[in-house]
Design goal:
single chain, alpha/beta, 5-stranded mixed β-sheet, two-stranded antiparallel sheet, 11% strand, globular
Amino acid sequence: MSFDHRPTQTAIRTDLGAIFISMELSRSTWLITSLSPGTGEKMSKHATPAGDIAGLLMRFAQLQEKAQARTGQVPPIIAIQEAGLDGFWIHRVLLSEGIESYVVDPASIATSRRRRRAKTDKIDGEALVRTLLAYKRGEPRVCAMVKAPTPEEEDQRRVSRERQTLTAERVQHVNRIKGLLFAQGIRDYEPMRRDRRQRLDALTTGDGRPLPPHLKTQIRRELDRLELLLEQIRTVEAERDALLERARTAEAAPAPGLLLGLKGIGADIAGILWAEGLFRPFANRRQVAAYAGLAPTPWKSGSIDREQGVSKAGNPRLRTIMIQLAWLWLRHQPHSALSQWFKDRVRASGSRQRKTTIVALARKLLVALWKYVTTGVVIEGAKMKAA
């Protein structure tokens, strides 16, 4: 007679008195995976057409009715979904219906490290339910829940993000025009100048020919699109300035005015800093650095102890603008304590460490700006703009 001495697996704990639901959202179908009281470890799965919020709520009601028939009580519903293409509108609908809802960062959920691991919506839905159970049990670091912005906060970010998109498109058109002319031996044409159309008519190729007619027509159409972009950028910048002015004069949000008062910070940087990060409450400086993806990621195991660089797991727009601001800070605030720290660090470690050290300066500067706009702690040695 043989005995199996392997320890039995611990059963999924379902005595929390609620229906745990995960939603796998796609463009065509929403897969609902649920774990209800009285069903043991068995999870049920249902599909509903994408966007059918009425069908989703009806399915939730049916799950509650079945749970009530089994237990004699109407359990609450706790739902979870991954942050993705659908944004936060489903999360807001569930909250308005009195449903406890969470949005999780999908990159924070532990997965198998096998090279070829099975991945289906069914497996992902069950994993989300188990993650939600562990989170509600209070297990530390089981996942990272996303703090959903309010509709107003979400809308305020669109101005700075639209300007970044328009600026990138402007660069594409300028480079395309320069590339077309460079192939004809023309190197000194600047599409951003006001006299761009007059100069286009006077251009000749490197071998002395006038511009070919089809090429000139193509460049004119490129200039039409470029001028439309320039007009849209001016409109967006006017909206940004008006938004910053309203925020500067509001008692509840003085951050933009404080940022604009520092030398080296203009309206564009102040708008992005405020809309992308500094409007949020943070408990400590570690949360500030982590939100921007500027937190360090050590690798320590046994005798191995090395630094992998920043995590890059946060807001990429905030991280990018902070790197740019760090370089500007060295230029416009050369006598500040942060600039002196950078210079001393580079002097000690060598000029090859400038790019690495600038990231550390960006992290320190972001924390210093957060303290400045929240508690009024002035950055040591920083100069203000002349009134």
